[in-house]
Amino acid sequence: MKEKEGNKKGKQLSSVSRREFIKGLGAGALGTAALSGGIIALKEAEAHPAEESLEEGIKIPLRLKINGIRYKVEVEPRYTLVDVIRDQLQLTGTKKACDRGECGACTVLLDGKPVYSCMTLAITAAGRDIMTIEGLASGEELHPIQQAFLENDAFQCGFCTSGQIMAVNGLLKQNLNPSREEARNALAGNICRCGTYTRILEATLDASQRLRKGGGNRG
Amino acid sequence: MKHHNYSIIGHRQPAVDAASKATGQAQYTVDIQLPGMLWGKILRSKYPHARILNIDTSKAEKLAGIKAVITHKDTLGKKFGFVRNTADQYPLAVDKVRYIGDEIAAVAAVAEDVAEEALALIRVDYEVLPAVFDPLEAIDPEAPLIHDGQNNISARLAWEFGNVEEGFGESDFVRQDTFYTQPVNHCPLEPHACVASFEPPDHLTVWASTQGVFYLRNQLSRTLDMPISNIRVIRPQVGGAFGGKIELFPFNVCAAILSQKTGKPVKIVCTREEVFTATRCRHPMIIHLKTGVKKDGALVAVQARIILDGGAYNSTGPVATYLAGAFLCLPLKARNIKYEGFRVYTNKPVCGAQRGHAVPQIRFAIESQLDIIAETLGLDPIELHLKNAVQTGDVTLNKQVITSCGFSECLEKIKAQRSPALPEGKGIGFATCAFVSGATYHLFFTTEAFANAIIQANEDGTVSLITGVADIGQGSDTVLAMITAEELGIGVKDIKLITADTDLTPYDWGSGSSRVTYQAGNATKMAAAQVKKLLLEAVSHELDVYPEELVARDGRIFVRDRPEKGISFAEAVSLAQKSTGGEPIIGQGEFQPQEAKVNLQSGEGNTSPAYSFGAQLAQVEIDKELGKVKVTKMVVAHDCGLAINPMAIEGQIEGSIAMGHGQALYEELIQEKGQTLNADFINYRLPTARDVPEVETMLVESVDPGGPYGAKESGEGIIVSTIPAIANAISNATGGRIHSLPLTPEKLLKALEQKTK
Ligand code: FES
Ligand code: FES
Question: Is residue B72's pLDDT more than 80?
Fold first, then answer.
């Protein structure tokens, strides 16, 4: 049996590359994946430039406000927020573990709500308030959520931690006094392979208490 | 249970790197960006078995932004492997590809997606060969040969202690079963990654998400034919490993060669799909098990014949095959044991080490079968285990020396926790484990000690702990800092860690086989003791007392009976330096296990310098209509020796249980004709916050005479008993017995159907 064939597909193995996937979709179909109760809700994307710019890789200027700081970047419309944050702005606290909206490592807050930044096109974040893990502590002083994670030993390898903390932050912005069950559901979209879930839940409830005492979550 | 007077050891200590992780400052390999850095990508085989006729890279080379394309011609064509004498994998395929995912070529480009596009332009002409996926078919002499010139048995080990045939003859009851386990992936959240930077004329620096920098250096040196001293391997933070980052991978070698060719640093980060399909997975096993007991449950004979499905290459195969046999009985004793393990090549992703390394599979089988036996004979499974429990001072049939053992105490504690009668639909299951505290054998032939540490005291009252240990998230840096702080009487915050850099730190074997606390802990304690000796001598002259009268604690060195008479640790360091004319105050320690050759052929030898033990109860609730299982609680009793950092140990136990929960109930790589169908987190489901059960941990601290402060293994071994405890609980609740992992609703419904027939 002989078979001669070039390796024509855009990517090794079986999956389709992000670039091809987005090319195939054309504009408009891929948008912000908002996290709610661990379920990914796909929202219609805001309008973004036409397909030619995708094909030719034309970069457009974009203004992003991250942790209260304004950045000017040049992006192709297909760039995801996580890649712009990590590769262009070197804010590497936000992690990328699946790049497919399946793990939560890349969770950031967009206008106060947790989103998977690997499922969010950078251009759709223009003009909105983006918050990453780097924006949480004020100077040397840890945010109460971070302090609660530390004291409850709520991580091992730490690779999921930024995403977990941002998911908790999002929860405690909406609900300062969540039940254990509510916290569990809110965090179900963030995988921790080290299995620190119980401690993350403890840290969440601990943080909510600290924040209530301190008069709210301003993180 | 406080049975000692340590100021640091035994206390709950947050991790030394906690703040950097909580603020996102911790740097992982995937976070590294260097000036001029290029992105590398690997072209992988799309056939499970094929001869490579030709590789045409000309089009890819012309793509704008591509800086280099390499194939096997750019490598030295040297094979590598976890165990040196069974090396069978090339950095890039030379003549054949043996599984879907096998490495064929690599590219370096200015951006990740450009590199990806270049892969599409590489033309490979294959001659597709017949492939074999089932290990039982692969054993057949007529099966296609995966490695030319040898049959498909990658490792075979066999031994017998006593005489099992006679043992079965003497037994009152003999039970025979076959069990099956599934392939699962480690799924570390940080994908496998490295950055390689070649500096002319002959120096290479590699940052890698790895469990062992020296192991990686050794393997790179052999594959690239470079002296070890020309290669520097550095471990940034590691985002999880679980055994899956213990080896060299072809992409490490490719990054190095691409960097040499381009003169630029090259970064390769595996995609999640690559992590799933082209790194390693846990060995699936077919386990034929026969056990003979007396009426009272005394184990007379145990016989196992195991087929390990190894995938395309050896990886840790011989070690896995050995461990499955070595832990056939421990933590129990039997009078006669026979073992035969075959590890078989198939045209599938490669299997290697994973948390528990081959022991969870065998223990699933044994603990399930013992549960069946206990039920059949009307015995209490805990009593059955107590009857056969190994004890301190025992030497097992295969010559494992039990230096400390709290196993019976674990059993008693678990027994006390067992709730008597359970309502319909609820069940309780029990299982046990034993595991190593590091190995006694060296895998790469070096004269260096297994673990080393250097400690230098600084005149500001801090000390630098310099060690090759690679913390992979399990908290070993914290444990070593605690040991240093305890010995020197200073705070954990006073310990500056310089770790896991082959140019700066002394040799260490790496984070594998649960060895760091025991082995590097001993080396660290020894180094700290030397520093303390130098300081006490200097202080004794100053205070005009004998060194033996002095104590180092709470940042001071003082006279034991007159605590007010003393000086600060910082002053002591200056004093000691002054007294030697400014010599650095340095201590040095190493750990080398006793000569304990494990003979793979006979199966004899002491696998580890110390063994941990554990017992677990799983409580489940079953929806009999749907076959759905909910694990409501796990109770664990764990003999980990003296618990140096109880908080971290409990975390490790919870981690083992979370992973065990997934692997018991739903995790499974679905492979069809060598193709993995669920290489993502949606279709390969991992435990989430909604799944994990409540965990109650009881630590049994049998102080080990050889461990630092009496410490042993913890955190890895517990997964071994989690899986069978859940299996036994399901059976307890429903009466249905499932012989294969994972324990899915479909299988449970089928088992219940069979029961009612
Ligand atoms: S990296 Fe975005 S969800 Fe996994
Ligand atoms: S701490 Fe390692 S993945 Fe969560």
Answer: yes
Chain A's closest residue to B106, CA to CA, is A12
Structural domains of chain A, count: 2
Of B53, B272, B659, the CB nearest to A98: B272
Enter the DSSP assignment of B721: H
Question: What is the pLDDT of chain B when averaged over all its residues?
Answer: 96
Enclosing domain of residue A17: 2-47
Task: Kindly state whether residue A82 falls inside one of the protein's structural domains.
Answer: no
Among B274-283, B415-424, B451-460, B504-513, whose mean pLDDT is lowest? B415-424
For an interface test with B, the pick among A194, A204, A206, A210 (most B C-beta atoms closer than 10 Å) comes out as: A194
How many C-beta atoms lie closer than 10 Å to residue B168's C-beta?
A: 18
In this prediction, residue B2 carries a pLDDT of: 52
**CB-count exposure of residue B455 (10 Å: 0-12, 13-18, 19+):** buried
Preceding amide of B201 cis, omega within 30: yes
- CA of A101: how far to CAs of A16, A106, A189, in Å? 15, 9, 9
Nearest chain A residue to B238, by CA: A157
In a domain, residue A64? The reply is no
- Checking if the pLDDT of B493 tops 70, the result is yes
- Look at residue B599 in the predicted model and tell me its pLDDT: 87
In this structure, is residue A16 part of a structural domain?
yes
CB nearest to A199's CB, from B44, B475, B651: B651
- pLDDT tens across B311-335, in order? 999 999 999 999 999 999 999 999 9
pLDDT over 90 for what percent of chain B? 94
In terms of Cβ atoms closer than 10 Å to its own Cβ (0-12, 13-18, 19+), residue B306 is: buried
Pairing assessment for the beta strands B231-234 and B203-208 based on DSSP bridges: parallel
State the pLDDT at residue A4.
38
The rounded distance, in Å, linking the Cα atoms of B10 and B701 is 11
Residue A115 Cα to ligand 1 midpoint, Å, equals 10
Asked if B30 and A95 come within 8 Å (Cβ–Cβ), the reply is yes
Domains of chain B: 18-26+450-591 (3.30.365.10), 32-129+189-240+245-278 (3.90.1170.50), 281-441+598-756 (3.30.365.10)
CATH code (residue A169):
1.10.150.120
Residue B231 has pLDDT above 90, yes or no: yes
Ligand 1 centroid to residue B186 C-alpha, Å: 17
Cβ atoms B507, B550 nearer than 8 A: no
Chain A residue closest in CA terms to B653: A195
ipTM at complex level: 0.96
Instruction: Give the Cα-Cα-Cα angle B713, B719, B724 (nearest 5 degrees).
Output: 135
pLDDT for residue A152? 96
Mean pLDDT calculated for residue range B448-473: 95
d(CA B303, CA B301): 7
Q: How far is the CA of A164 from the centre of ligand 1 (A)?
A: 12
Closest CA to B586 of B452, B710, B450, B707: B452
* Rg, Å, chain A Cα set: 19
Tell me: pLDDT of B225 over 60. Answer: yes
Nearest-by-Cβ selection for A165 from B22, B101, B277: B22
pLDDT single digits (tens) A114-149: 999 999 999 999 999 999 999 999 888 999 999 999
Decide if B304 contacts B339 (C-beta within 8 A).
yes
Residue A119 included in any domain: no
Collapsing DSSP states into helix, strand and coil, what is residue B611? strand
